[in-house]
Amino acid sequence: MALFSDIGSFFDFKNRLGGLLLLLVFSSFGLNAAPILILGDSLSASYGMPEDQGWVQLLREKMPEHSIINGSVSGETSAGGLRRLPALLDSAQPKLLLVELGGNDGLRGFPPKQLKNNLTKIIELAKAQQITILLSEIMVPPNYGPRYASQISTVYKELAEEHGVTLMPFFMEQIVTDSTLMQRDGIHPNQKAQPAIAEFMLPWFEQAL
User: Fold this and answer.
1) Spatial CA neighbour of 127 closest among 167, 161, 96, 173
2) Which of 23, 92, 136, 150 could lock 100 by a disulfide, CB 3.0 to 4.6 Å apart?
3) Residues with a known catalytic role
4) Residue 13 domain-assigned?
5) Where does the SGNH hydrolase-type esterase domain start and stop, copy by copy (predicted)?
């Protein structure tokens, strides 16, 4: 039996098939265009420079198919991030959450247990909504002492193991040792460092998605 009764039915089938393939292409693009939420502090909030010069904006340019929402606030602690997170999740509806918090907890000498409790609640809130989590490790300055620095580092390793989330190395580790990439305060990266941070972030985001 002939598959097509006439040439007209053949072209009708061809047009339908083309439309279906086009729909699949757009559907695949839509699935890939996952909203990304960044919950961080001044290291992600373009501190000391215009927002459009920060690494988050540079990452947007590298990942134009994704909506990247920057929920970072300079001076933010893990407790502050936890308070703001429910509203951010409701508005952004992200598929991926980068948690870059803890630096200010460390600088203020907050107990590591308190930091872990706050980050645990952040992770649990995100996992409850089936959001993929990328956890950035944080390191405190060496003048806080090796014991405290080790305790802070352990918090992130334990969280990754206990909750099965991806732990990303501290993106400032190589930058902070280069004075040409740092602002005068010796804490924040300058504008020159932002492209390097965006390049560092890109494969971690792509792998997480």
Assistant:
1) 96
2) 136
3) 42, 185, 188
4) no
5) 38-192
